[in-house]
Amino acid sequence: MSVNELRGHTGRAALAVMLAGALAVAAPASADGCPDVELVFARGTGEPIGVGRVGQALADALAPLLGGRTLATYGVNYPAGINFLNTSTGADDAASHIAGMAANCPNTRLALGGFSQGAAVVSMLAGVPPVGQRIGSLGSAPPLAPDLAGRIAAVAVFGNPSTRFGSPLSSAGIFVGRAIDLCSDGDPICSAGGRDRAAHSGYEFPPYSEQAAGFIAGLV
After folding, report:
1. Active site includes 200?
2. Considering the chain, what is the average pLDDT of its residues?
3. 116 included as an active-site residue
4. In contact, 105 and 34? CB cutoff 8 Å
5. Cβ distance 181 to 126 under 8 Å?
6. Residues 26, 40: one domain?
7. Count of beta carbons in the 10 Å neighbourhood of residue 112
8. Helix count (H) and strand count (E) of the chain?
9. Using an 8 Å Cβ cutoff, are 208 and 182 in contact?
C-alpha cells in the first residue's frame, strides 16, 4: 500500500469516528434508558405480578397513539390478595417508584392507572377513601406528595371501588382534570346498583382500554 493510499484510509477512518460521535450526541433523550412515556399500573385482585390483563390491554392500545415515542410499563408491586388492608402497600410502592422516576427520568411523561383493587391503590394516591368511610383510615395510605402528583400527566382507572361510594377520580381527589374513571354498566364493584359480576371482568376489551388510551394520549 502506498503512502497516499494509507493516508486515504486513515482519513476515512477518522471521518467515520467523527460521524459516529456526532450521531451519538444527536441521539434522542430515550437513549439514556428513560422512556418518553411510562404507564404505572396496579393490577387487580388475584392477578399475577405485573400490570395485569387490563394494564397490558391499556398499554397495547396506548403505544400506537404516541407518535413514535417510546412507552414503558411498571407493574405496582403489592400482594393484590383478598386482604384489602394490604392495598396500601401498593400505594407506597407506586409513590416510591414515581419519586424515583421524577429524580432519574425527569423528562419522562408519567401515566397512572389501576383496575379493581389496583384502582383503590390509585384512589389512595389521589387522597380519596377507596371504600368511602366504611373502614375509616384502615388500609389507607397518604396521598401522593404535591410535587410528585404534579409529575402525573394522566390517570385511568377501571372498576374503581370508590366510584361506588360517589367519589370517581374524574371528580374527586388531586387528579381531577387529569383522570378518567371507567365503570361498566352493572359492575357491582363500582356501581351502587350493579348486580352483574361478569361486568367487572371485561375491562381489557373494547371500548374501555381504547377509551382510556385515547384520554391518556391526549395528555402525555
Report:
1. yes
2. 85
3. yes
4. yes
5. no
6. no
7. 31
8. 7, 6
9. yes
Task: Give the Cα separation of 85 and 146 in Å (integer).
Answer: 24
The residue whose grid cell reads 390491554 is 57
Close Cβ partners of 64 (under 8 Å, ≥ 6 residues apart): none
Annotated active-site residue in 36, 93, 181, 187: 187
Outline where DSSP puts E strands in the chain: 37-42, 71-75, 109-115, 130-133, 152-158, 179-182
Q: What is the CATH number of the domain that holds 130?
A: 3.40.50.1820
Is there a single domain that holds both residue 160 and residue 112? yes
Q: Name the helix (H) or strand (E) containing 93.
A: helix 87-104
The three three-digit cell numbers of residue 133, written as one number = 368511610
Predicted local confidence at residue 142, as pLDDT: 85
Is residue 9 part of the annotated active site? The answer reads no
- Which residue type occupies 156? A
Please state, in angstroms and rounded to a whole number, the distance separating the CA atoms of residues 71 and 68: 9
Q: Which of 116, 140, 167, 184 is catalytic?
A: 116
Q: Where does the pLDDT of residue 193 fall: very low under 50, low under 70, confident under 90, or very high at 90 and above? A: confident
What the block records as the C-alpha cell of 191 is 356501581
For the entire predicted model, the pTM comes to 0.83
What are the cell numbers at 97?
417508584
Give the domain extent around 102: 34-217
Distance CA 2, CA 94 (A): 65
CA 87 from centroid of its chain's CA atoms: 17
Residues 26 and 100 in one domain: no
Digit-coded pLDDT (tens) for 56-69: 999 999 999 999 99
